[in-house]
Amino acid sequence: MRSTWVISICLAALGTIECRAQVPEPILITEGEGGFTGTLEPGGRFGISVADAGDIDRNGVSDLIVGAYPEGCCAQGELHVLLMEQDGTVSSTTIIEFTRELFPDRLEGDKLFGHSVSGYRDVDGDGTPEVLVNSLFATWMLFLEPDGKLRESKLLFQSEIEEWFGLTVASIDDGGNDRMPDIAISHYHSASRGRLVLLYMDGRNVERSVPIENSPATGMPFGTNTYSYFGERIVDLGDTNGDGFTDLAVAHHRFYKDSVNTTWGAIWILFLKPWLSDGGLETDPISEVLKGKQLIDSRELPGFVPEVGTGNCFGCGMLGLGDLDANGYGDLGFVTSGSGTTIFFLGPNGTIDWRSTMGVRIQRFFDDDAQGNPELISDLNGDGHLN
Question: Does 92 have pLDDT greater than 90?
């Protein structure tokens, strides 16, 4: 069992078939390594979430936000703001604790702060990008100083206590369209089989929120498994169907669509459209914001056989890779329990380009018990490749 978690930064091109052969020894960020001078508690889950926060200290290098919380149900959680050097090492670290003083709108009993994080844009015009952080019952926007310290926290969305449990949060590029969403949040509750919530922002304020729910009330549009995790991971793919609007990839751990109870999982490509109603929600909010959807079922992928069992988590480590093969469509990387990492090169309308994808399988870099989600950050070392 791992007692201390680490973050690894690979300085290499990601678009090659045999990525492992071209990845040098990764830079480990942990206690006493990679420029990290903080103290980490054993079992503290440093690195349970990682995101590119943009250039917080304005030195021309993207910085990182890292979630951490000890194992157990009652962990409060904390956020590490890592200001980065060009060589992938840490120049300084700031820890933001989930206290009532810093988060006055925090609900009693809220916890697991930092289990999902995302970079965002600069909404107040001070030159420092804001960041998004999930706790168990809420989503927060944090306003940081250039040194990484917290200036202000703002509660964006709050779920019902003991009903909805936050899974992930993701920033969406709305293309400057006020009727397109800016933030996507996912929640889990066994009675509904999961839901997304799209937030439409007006600067720092939520103008409207739209739920996309997988429940009997909505006809179970994303599968029937009672204990599935629709929304395990969310990725902004850009425009995949040529309509000029951003689309999303949504991981669905433990998905199944028939009477066979399997935990293989799936990926949904959701084609977004602008909010067109000037009034309240229509009877079917899904049709208000979605033009359509495309299913990538892991059971139907040629040559791709993830193991069956509760330990498998197809898509849990899903991340957007940008357009690696330069075909005009965003691509996806996956870390699947027991199966290493796979790159799916996407074509139009969320389909898989098998000419590029077949045979692409990157070997594992970490131990079997390593957890957490990978994150693609920007070109730290100036070699023209993403890290």
Answer: yes
Task: Using alpha carbons, select from 146, 144, 138 the residue that is nearest to residue 165.
Answer: 138
Closest CA to 263 of 303, 213, 226: 226
Q: Which long-range contacts (CB under 8 A, 24 or more apart) does 71-77 make?
A: 71/43, 71/45, 73/111, 74/111, 75/111, 75/112, 76/111, 76/112, 76/113, 77/111, 77/112, 77/113, 77/114, 77/115, 77/135
Residues 6+ apart with CB under 8 A from 27: 8, 9, 11, 34, 87, 88, 89
Q: How far apart are CA 360 and CA 16, in angstroms?
A: 9
The answer for residues whose C-beta is within 8 angstroms of residue 193's C-beta and 6 or more apart is 214, 215, 220, 222, 223, 224, 225, 226, 228, 230
**Residue 373 is encoded by which pair of tokens?**
């989600």
Burial (CB count within 10 angstroms: exposed 0-12, middle 13-18, buried 19+), residue 174: buried
Give me the percent of the chain exceeding a pLDDT of 70.
65
Q: Report the 10 Å Cβ neighbour count for 139.
A: 25
Taking Cα atoms as reference points, which of 217, 92, 191 lies closest to residue 144?
92
Neighbour-count burial of 345, counting CB atoms closer than 10 A to its CB (0-12 exposed, 13-18 middle, 19+ buried): buried
Query: Side chain identity at 86, as an amino acid letter?
Result: Q
Q: Is the model's pLDDT at 312 over the cut of 70?
A: no
pTM (predicted TM-score): 0.83
The Cβ of residue 287 has, within 10 Å, a number of other Cβ atoms equal to 11
Per-residue 3-state assignment (H helix, E strand, C coil) for 203-236 = CCEEEEEEEEECCHHHCCCCCCCCCCEEEEEEEE
Give the bridge partners for 131, in sequence order. Answer: 119, 142
End-to-end CA distance of the chain: 27
Query: Would you state the pLDDT for residue 335?
Result: 58
Mean pLDDT of 46-63: 91
Say what the pLDDT of residue 219 is.
Answer: 57
The confidence score (pLDDT) of residue 53 equals 94
